[in-house]
Design brief:
four-stranded parallel sheet; 6 helices; alpha/beta; single chain; 33% helix; two-stranded antiparallel ribbon
Length: 155
């Protein structure tokens, strides 16, 4: 067998599949085994977009324990679908409280929503304790027939 075919065949395993990018074994009877996240060190990034418009479907405290960003962008603006999710915003507080280091974090909401306003007001003391700053922008960009809120981000 040529080396490139051998290499390809050694990487494919029909008994395993990927669930959210994690290898799982479909023959396993335990539902936890297909949802477990491998243990690993945290990842440090400058900017992270909170997945799925800040919906609680894919983001939990483990996300914030593992993905440590200087800036998190929250883009949810659909209350009917739970975007942004209060649970995700609370998960940021819970996840960051376990970092063990007091790095500055800036939360950048792209829309002014009731959920983010209430969360900001109700958890302001905890945000200060954890060194989390929430950007609020009253700036508006106007382009042709469209206008939208704007934030300036400097690194």
């Amino acid at each position: 067998m040529p080396e490139d075919e051998l290499s390809r065949s050694s990487h494919s395993n029909p008994g395993k599949s990927l669930v959210n990018g994690i290898k799982t074994n479909p023959a396993s009877n335990s539902p936890k085994s297909s949802l477990s996240v491998p243990v690993g060190p945290p990842v440090y990034v400058d900017l992270a977009y909170i997945p799925n418009h800040c919906s609680g479907k894919n983001t939990d405290p483990e996300f914030f324990r593992r993905v440590r960003a200087s800036y998190y962008v929250v883009s949810g603006n659909d209350a009917a679908n739970g975007e942004p999710s209060r649970a995700v915003l609370d998960a940021l507080l819970e996840g960051k409280s376990q970092w063990g280091e007091n790095l500055q974090v800036t939360l950048i909401p792209t829309h002014d929503t009731e959920v983010t306003r209430e969360w900001y007001q109700q958890t302001h003391e905890k945000q200060q304790e954890l060194n989390i700053m929430v950007l609020a922008s009253s700036s508006t960009v106007v382009m042709q027939d469209e206008s939208f809120p704007a934030c300036k981000i400097e690194f």
